Amino acid sequence: MVQHRAEQGVTRRPAQRHGKRCTIISRSLYQVDNLSRIKHIICIASGKGGVGKSTTAINLAVALQQQGYKVGLLDADIYGPSQPTMLGVRSGTRPEIVDKKYMRPILACGLETNSMGYLVEGSTAMVWRAPMIVGAFNQMLQFTLWSALDYLLIDMPPGTGDIQLSLSQSVRLTGAVIVTTPQDVALLDARKGIEMFRKVNVPLLGVVENMGVHICSSCGHAEAIFGEGGGEQLANDYGVQVIGSLPLDLSIREHTDAGRPILLAQPDGAVASAYHVLARRLVAQVAELEAAGESAPSISITDD
Questions:
Q1: CB of 205 within 8 A of CB of 240?
Q2: How far, in Å, are 117, 126, 133 from residue 95 at the CA level?
Q3: What are the two backbone dihedrals, phi and then psi, of residue 285, each rounded to the nearest 5 degrees?
Q4: How far is CA 195 from the centre of its chain?
Q5: Does the pLDDT value for residue 19 go beyond 90?
Q6: For residue 76, is it within any domain?
Q7: DSSP secondary structure letters along 4-60
Q8: At what angle do helices 53-66 and 250-257 cross, to 10 degrees?
Q9: How far is it, in rounded angstroms, from Cα 105 to Cα 146?
Q10: Taking 60 as the threshold, does the pLDDT of residue 16 lie above it?
Q11: pLDDT at 25
Q12: Looking at the domain assignment, is residue 243 inside a domain?
């Protein structure tokens, strides 16, 4: 992990030269904003684990890239990073370090990526307290040399914890996407995630209902084994749209485990088509949000 020492007791530092904007990263650390060239930063979030959030984030990112956008993907799950495996990145791959503190993103599946999984051995348990976790996340976000991206998708850890709060308070977010499955227990936690983003004034771009139907690998029969209409009801309750409905399909799991997203493995299949629909609807929601002049507030420090 790139090491960086925070200055204690610092309450204000002059803006960096050449007019670059400074952004609060933590209580005592200021850093030149490395995100100013990114047009849209979007959280892919869920109230609980196991709903397919990371799979959705990866395939959504690939779909956007295939539609002509320049896309980055940040794995914010410090405790359980899975993106390197799901993207097929060879074990032991490390980001190139620039000027002893910056990291060049790893290129995978046409995406600029970074993850704690690139920085530690796969079997290493991250037994860290919350301040260390938040610090590591902020380093990956702010010290990665992202290029001029159209979209940076942040695959959030499940729940409503410190990373979610830190991100919402330090970075200008375009909005958040909530991934859920149809069953009641997942919907209950998804509501908590939505309420958290509402409290910190991050716009909700839509709901993705994952595993809506199970597709039999033998006969193709579709069955709603987790129930029906949960995602639609959740979206209606909060005045947003279901921007994606994705199946529980064996091929998604097989290709994900093999490190090849299904949009690359089966680009002309029905599942890939569903992810492309999700990507187009997300782009439309972002455009609608921009037209309305809404976005999350930024927190910055200048010499004005």
A1: yes
A2: 11, 19, 19
A3: -65, -40
A4: 18
A5: no
A6: yes
A7: -PPPTT----PPPGGG--EEEEETTEEEE-S-TT-SEEEEEE-SSSSSSHHHHHHHH
A8: 80
A9: 7
A10: no
A11: 37
A12: yes
Domain count, the chain: 1
Reported as a single tens digit per residue, the pLDDT across 178-219 is 999 998 889 999 999 999 999 999 999 999 999 988 888 888
pTM, two decimals, is 0.84
Structure tokens at 270: 């029905």
Please list the residues that pair with 115 across neighbouring strands. 75
Q: Is residue 2 part of a domain?
A: no
Q: What is the CA radius of gyration of the chain?
A: 19
Residue 1 confidence (pLDDT): 55
Measured torsion, CA atoms of residues 65, 116, 155, 140, in degrees rounded to the nearest 10: -80
Closest CA to 181 of 46, 62, 44: 46
User: Which of the pair, 89 or 126, is modelled with greater confidence?
Assistant: 89
Mean pLDDT lowest for which of 48-62, 217-231, 256-270, 273-287? 217-231
Provide the domain limits for residue 145. 21-301
Please give the residue that has the higher pLDDT: either 88 or 219. 88
What CA–CA distance (Å, rounded) separates 177 from 246?
14
- Flag whether 9 is in a domain: no
CATH code at position 133: 3.40.50.300
Percent of the chain with pLDDT over 90: 61
Query: For residue 62, which of 266, 221, 288, 239 has the smallest C-alpha distance?
Result: 266
